[in-house]
Amino acid sequence: xxxxxRFLLVMIYxxxxxxxxxxECDIQIITTLLHEGLHAFIENLYLAANKYNKNIDDYFPxxxxxxxxxxxxxxxxxxxxxxxxxxxxxxxxxKDIYGNTFTDGEYLAFAWQxxxxxxxxxxxxxxxxxxxxxKSIQT
Length: 139
Description:
The chain has helices spanning 2-7, 18-21, 26-51, 63-70, 74-85, 87-98, 104-111, 119-123, 132-135. Residues 134-139 have low confidence and may be disordered. The protein is built from 9 helices and no strands.
């Protein structure tokens, strides 16, 4: 646990272009914040793992394979990793905030916001179990 506390001392900033999301509804903004927060969390631990000579896969299993596959562009690797492994965490976070306001399918559709250009989305169910009705939902 001490290693993890030391890792979290790396400062990561999230910059949101409010012009991009000013016309979005509140759940879309919350989804964006969760999504960007996960990028920051991954980046923080990745930088700290390198700094302290730790293996990033100890914290995010198989993450290094995503970096190897998608090259040095962290954004692409992050999106692929989030799409393959963290969709349900985003859904759960939205449910914690909004309760029974939306259906499970609607929460899942919101969770895919920003991740629809991934191989996980394109493979439709090979990596993630995606209800077919969410494939046609547009954001």
